[in-house]
Amino acid sequence: MRSIYTIILLVLSNTFMTLAWYGHLKFKEMKWSQHLPIITVILISWGIAFFEYMLQVPANRLGFKEYGGPFTLLQLKIIQEVITLVVFVGFSLLLFKTETFRLNHLIGFVFLILAVYFIFKK
């Protein structure tokens, strides 16, 4: 059960991270934010990223073997990276209509899945 909670928290955390890192690129489409100075954009992104950390830290503690979780540190990292890319692809396809998902992207994901396999292989 800890593994499921860990993954759910990582997905939520990465959703906030993606919003913090890339959401501001859509600000130009919102009238209220078109002329914000970069420091304001940074502060807004930090505010969003705060929620990422509020979810990421407990996810890592819950999932890490030395805290009673099922995952090693390397396994946690590779899970987080795959979740990050999956969330990012969904985000970019939904919000950035100019982005396309191509065959080379799919091949890259296959290699990431292979990385997960090899990281978890005993």
TrEMBL record:
InterPro entries from the UniProt entry: DUF486
Under the heading Pfam families, the entry gives: DMT_6
Q: Where are the transmembrane segments?
A: 6-24, 36-55, 75-96, 103-120
Is Membrane set as a keyword in this record?
Answer: yes
Keyword set, alphabetical order? Membrane, Transmembrane, Transmembrane helix
Q: What is this protein called?
A: DMT family protein
Q: What is the organism of origin for this protein? A: Chryseolinea soli
